[in-house]
Structures are given as structure tokens and as C-alpha cells.
Design a protein that fits this description.
Keywords: NAD, Oxidoreductase, Repeat. The protein is α/β, with parallel strands linked by helices. The chain is built from 13 helices and 17 strands. The strands form 5 sheets. The protein has a 5-stranded mixed β-sheet with strand order 11-10-9-12-13, with helices on both faces. A 4-stranded mixed β-sheet has the order 5-4-3-6, with helices on both faces.
């Protein structure tokens, strides 16, 4: 993620900007329709946008800032962004400025150096709000905009703290509809494209499944989760639902994902995908977050539960996992530590196995197995009993 100047700052009033412009003899700003007198920006919230045409993070971020600017203009916010170019020549300056709906200072390397030094710009893109000394600006304004879009305005430390508090409320136990809806987006979609209202999911145990088709561990875990989902669809009678929160690189990958999944998804073009990744601090995929029927977060580590215990881990609570561990321990204590199977030449030892295939019945096993230390041979505990019983 591109970031802006990485320090806590207090900015002077925009009068300092006017003073710097005056020392260079600049009496106007640039727009796509011509020159704009400096008086035009008086009384507005001013943000300096330091960027360059040659900078890939700048070009990636600019469309996001264009959306934010348009949204805030439509809301009637008195905001003006002023582009300060780090480009090497005027041709690149105008090429970059062409995609921006806001103003720019004239291309001037001396002016750039003065503004860069004044506002201590160490990297680009940087977005610098100009406030009086008694207003603290948030650190990493670029990151704040990337995370929250227009909701980040007015880019102050106070606003950032408010947004973080809202995220925390949603993460710990906000209502499902507050967590999964945004503006007019109040639905998720099935793989055939039909819409399912989030309100219809209230009261169910919800698994938010974060991942992408390009990720091999995600594809591997998806197969396991599908088995669990189908089992619970029968045993729990529809009380469990999974919603894909895609981190795919494009809609094509997202569509491939959905064709292989029996559950729902947040639409690819929906901002809620980014919001949910931020709220639950998703850094690694796949990840499975469980929201309980009481609309509170049960666990952010359901992937491990499903990997270890499959459908038996439902409803994915700590108490349920404790029950499973106790039950498995008692089950293990009931088995002998070693057995001698007449179909195998070596002694078999009791072992805990995440998953295996029994060499007698050829079915998949989980948890307890009798295994050979000398060769790749495993038996279900019940299969050992069945073989011994058949030979009596």
C-alpha cells in the first residue's frame, strides 16, 4: 500500500501556501478550462496532492482519489485538491493532470522543491490537508483514503479514531445488517447471480470466507469446506451459511471461484469486500470468520477448526472445541497403545492423524489411527477390530 509522509504532523494554515506561491510570482492555479485565481480556493478545505506520472502507486491511487473527490463534491463539501507534480517535464505533467478533475499548481521545479521541503514529503503519492495548528491530521492520509474512501473526510486524527471505533464495534458484535450492508448494497449473490437479502440471513451462523482463486491453499481448503457445508446443510437444516469475500485480482477469477462453490458471495464490484478485509484485519488467505446467530463474532480462526475437526466443529465456539478435545481424549484412552494386525507384518501404534486413508477399507479417516513407523500403513481403529473379529 502506498503511504504518505510517515510522521505525526500539525499543518499551518493555507496562508503558508499562498506565501510560497507569491514568492514564485504565481497568482493563479490551473484547471482543464484555463487559469483559476487564487481567490477561488479561499474558505475551502485544501489538500495538496503530491504525485507523478512515472510513479506506479500514484497512478493506481489517483482513480480512487477521483472517486472520493466526486463523491465529496456531490455531498456539497467545500474541498479543493491541488496537484503538485513530481514529474520531470511539462509533457508528463499535463499527461498526468489530464485524468484529474481538480486544480494544479503550474509546473515549476523550484516551486516543487519549496513545497516538498515545507510539507516534508518523503514519498509519493502524498495527500496533505492544510489545517490550522489546533487540528491534528491523521497519519497516513493515503492509507486512510484507501481504507475508507469518502468516509475518511476530513482526514483528521479524530475522524480516523471514529472510523476505527466503528470497525471495532462491527468486528466484535455489530448487527449482521450493519456489517454486511453498505448504502444501497443490502444483498449478497448466489452462484447463479440471484440476490439474497442480508436480512434473510439474520439468525443463522455465518462463515465469512476470505480468499482468491489464484491461491493454492485457498483452493485446497475450499474442497474441505464444501464437504463441511454440504454435511451441515443436512444435519443443521440450513442454519449455517457461507459468504465468499473475494480477494481475487479480477472479476474473471471471481466468476471461476463462484462456479465451484455452493454458497453465497459479496459481489465483486462491491466495496464491502475491502471493508470486511479491513474490519477483520485479514492478512493471510484463506481465512474463515464465524458470525454467530446472536450476530456476534464467534471466531476469526475457523479455518483451523474446520481443518482439524470438519463438520464436528460446528457451531465453531470455544466450548465446542473444548468438548471435541475432551471427547477425542476419552476415545483415545479407550484404545490400546499398540496392536498387531494379522494383515501387516509390523506392530501398529496408536496415533492422532489430521487425515488419512485406511489401508484396509480404503476410506478416509480422521483423528485416531493405528500407524506403522516403518512403512506408510494406517488403519481405522474399527478396522483393526473388524479384522481381529473375522479371524477368531
Amino acid at each position: 500500500m502506498a503511504v504518505s509522509a510517515d510522521y505525526k504532523v500539525r499543518f499551518p494554515e493555507s496562508d503558508d501556501l499562498y506565501s510560497i506561491l507569491a514568492t514564485e510570482g504565481i497568482e493563479f492555479l490551473l484547471s482543464h478550462s484555463g487559469e483559476v485565481p487564487l481567490e477561488y480556493i479561499h474558505g475551502k478545505t485544501i489538500c495538496l496532492f503530491f504525485s507523478a506520472n512515472w510513479c506506479r502507486p500514484c497512478k493506481d491511487f489517483t482513480p480512487e482519489l477521483v472517486k472520493l473527490y466526486g463523491n465529496l463534491q456531490n455531498r456539497g463539501e467545500e474541498l479543493e485538491i491541488i496537484f503538485v507534480s513530481f514529474d520531470h517535464d511539462m509533457t508528463l505533467f499535463y499527461e498526468h493532470f489530464w485524468c484529474m478533475p481538480w486544480l494544479a499548481v503550474p509546473f515549476n521545479l523550484t516551486l516543487l522543491n519549496k513545497l516538498r521541503d515545507k510539507y516534508r514529503i518523503s514519498r509519493i503519492p502524498s495527500l496533505v490537508p492544510l489545517y490550522s495548528d489546533d487540528i491534528l491530521v491523521a497519519e497516513d492520509v493515503i492509507g486512510l483514503v484507501e481504507d475508507y474512501g469518502p468516509e475518511a473526510f476530513p482526514f483528521t486524527k479524530k475522524r480516523k479514531e471514529e472510523l476505527k471505533a466503528i470497525d471495532e464495534s462491527k468486528r466484535v458484535g455489530g448487527q449482521l445488517e450493519k456489517l454486511l450492508t453498505h448504502e444501497s448494497q443490502n444483498y449478497v449473490v448466489s452462484r447463479n447471480g440471484s440476490k439474497v437479502l442480508v436480512s434473510k440471513l439474520v439468525g443463522k451462523t455465518i462463515g465469512l470466507y476470505f480468499g482468491a482463486h489464484w491461491c493454492p491453499p485457498f483452493r485446497s481448503f475450499t474442497s474441505q469446506l464444501i464437504d463441511v457445508y454440504n454435511e451441515l446443510a443436512t444435519t443443521e437444516k440450513g442454519s449455517f451459511e457461507v459468504i465468499l469475500v473475494s480477494t481475487d485480482r479480477d472479476s474473471r477469477e471471481f466468476n471461476i471461484n463462484m462456479t465451484n462453490m455452493p454458497w453465497l458471495a459479496v459481489p465483486y464490484e462491491d466495496r464491502r469486500r475491502q471493508d470486511l478485509c479491513r474490519i477483520f484485519n485479514i492478512k493471510l488467505i484463506p481465512a474463515l470468520v464465524i458470525i454467530g446467530p446472536e450476530e456476534k463474532t464467534v471466531t476469526t480462526n475457523a479455518r483451523e477448526m474446520v481443518s482439524l475437526y470438519g463438520s464436528r466443529s460446528f457451531p465453531f465456539t470455544e466450548s465446542r472445541i473444548a468438548e471435541l478435545k475432551d471427547s477425542l481424549k476419552k476415545e483415545g484412552d479407550s484404545f490400546p497403545r499398540k496392536v498387531k494386525d494379522k494383515k501387516h507384518e509390523h506392530e501398529l501404534k496408536l496415533d492422532m492423524a489430521k487425515a488419512y486413508v485406511c489401508d484396509f477399507c480404503k476410506k478416509q479417516g480422521r483423528f485416531w489411527a493405528f500407524s506403522c513407523d516403518d512403512c506408510d500403513y494406517d488403519l481405522h481403529p474399527t478396522c483393526v477390530e473388524e479384522q481381529e473379529a473375522s479371524l477368531v
